[in-house]
Design a protein that fits this description.
The complex is a heterodimer of chains A (179) and B (175).
Chain A: H1 8-16, H2 20-42, H3 45-62, H4 72-90, H5 94-102, H6 120-125, H7 129-140, H8 145-152, H9 156-174
Chain B: H1 3-14, H2 26-48, H3 57-82, H4 89-111, H5 122-142, H6 147-168
Helix pairs in contact in B: 2-5, 2-6, 3-4, 4-6, 5-6
The chains are: A mainly alpha (179), B mainly alpha (175).
Chain lengths: 179, 175
């Protein structure tokens, strides 16, 4: 790891002053978490890679806004979620893509055998876009529905409904019967 | 909480917080931030000279010299490129662009030799743009036909010319 003995604060301070090597070290340290979130939100490797690049390019500009009041990783996570959502919106045909995915043949996908060895990430990627984004932000990242509603520009009730839908679909994917 | 919720919570707690991308993303990021630095340098110069739009007689001379140079290069390039056939046509174009840019910068600087610059750090800004161009050229060596990179290089070169012109245009000549 390039991180070495330098503290993160030192790297942040240097990167704020334009030190690209320090910024590279921050990239090496955080790319794993940034990419994981981008991948779970976008559901596509290529788009997640592009969004991750966008996050770090924007981060270079926005680093001055980080005041050290919170953990850098927490702040970066929030920046990543917002930039990725905004990146997805900017993509051509975002609404169309969303509409298509909402009607995609998710039910045709085979349900997992009722096994304990479940690849949750692979199942989450199979969710329709809105349900997936809400599920990732709420269940995996711990955001409140109020925050998600504001991030995704939807009503709080819609966020809760999408979360419920995501859980129902995951239940189907895992082959769990309704209790 | 139902059994399913418990199971789901357990799966979520086991999900890896990190995932590595399959390709190296740093190169694109570095290009992006270097390009941003170039834009910022030009913005700094523009702040000192926000209304500069006049082309002075010296600038006309510089432009005319550049046009002549392009014409000469246009005819000379095919012969020059034959000397090194191992390089792709794409990179030969980059070489020609860079050579033309250097000549244009040199002639502009010569024409402004007696003019005081409006900012003190313009040479530093010019160097940053040079660095940006070097990074893009390095990327073009591997991928000489990448039109996005060629456009980016062309943009950086335009910024260099604009920077030199703006910092040297006397205030009394500005509209």
């Amino acid at each position: 790891m390039v991180f070495g003995n330098k503290s993160e604060n030192e790297l942040i301070s240097k990167a704020k002053k334009g030190d690209k090597q320090a910024f590279r070290s921050l990239y090496d340290e955080h790319i794993g978490r940034v990419y994981a979130l981008c991948y779970r939100l976008t559901g596509e490797k290529g788009m997640a890679e592009d969004a991750s690049q966008e996050v770090f390019i924007q981060l270079w500009k926005k680093l001055g806004n980080f005041d050290g009041q919170s953990q850098f990783s927490t702040w970066l996570h929030s920046v990543t979620a917002n930039i990725t959502i905004s990146y997805m919106r900017k993509q051509k045909g975002w609404v169309q893509r969303m509409f298509n995915l909402e009607n995609s043949g998710i039910n045709e996908m085979p349900a997992e055998e009722n096994s304990t060895d479940v690849d949750l990430e692979a199942l989450v990627i199979r969710l329709p876009e809105r349900a997936r984004m809400v599920f990732v932000l709420h269940a995996i990242e711990g955001y409140r529905h109020e925050d998600i509603a504001s991030m995704l520009n939807m009503a709080v009730g819609s966020s809760k409904a999408q979360f419920f839908r995501a859980k129902q679909l995951l239940k189907d994917f895992m082959g769990v019967d309704d209790e | 909480m139902s059994n399913f919720d418990d199971k789901l919570a357990q799966h979520i707690s086991e999900i890896s917080k990190e995932k590595q991308p399959e390709r190296d993303l740093w190169r694109g990021i570095e290009l992006g931030i270097t390009s941003q630095q170039g834009d910022a340098s030009q913005d700094d110069a523009s702040q000192d000279d926000a209304s500069s739009s006049t082309v002075t007689s010296k600038q006309w001379m510089a432009i005319a010299a550049s046009v002549c140079l392009v014409t000469v290069l246009w005819f000379a390039a095919p012969f020059a490129f034959k000397a090194d056939e191992s390089r792709s046509d794409g990179y030969a174009l980059i070489d020609a662009m860079s050579m033309q840019q250097q000549q244009q910068v040199n002639s502009l600087l010569a024409s402004y030799e007696s003019t005081t610059a409006l900012t003190e750090d313009w040479q530093e800004q010019l160097k940053e743009l040079d660095d940006a161009a070097d990074v893009i050229k390095a990327a073009l060596k591997d991928d000489p036909d990448n039109s996005a990179l060629i456009k980016m290089l062309h943009h950086v070169y335009q910024q260099q010319i604009a920077l030199i012109e703006r910092v040297h245009a006397p205030k009394w000549q500005q509209i």
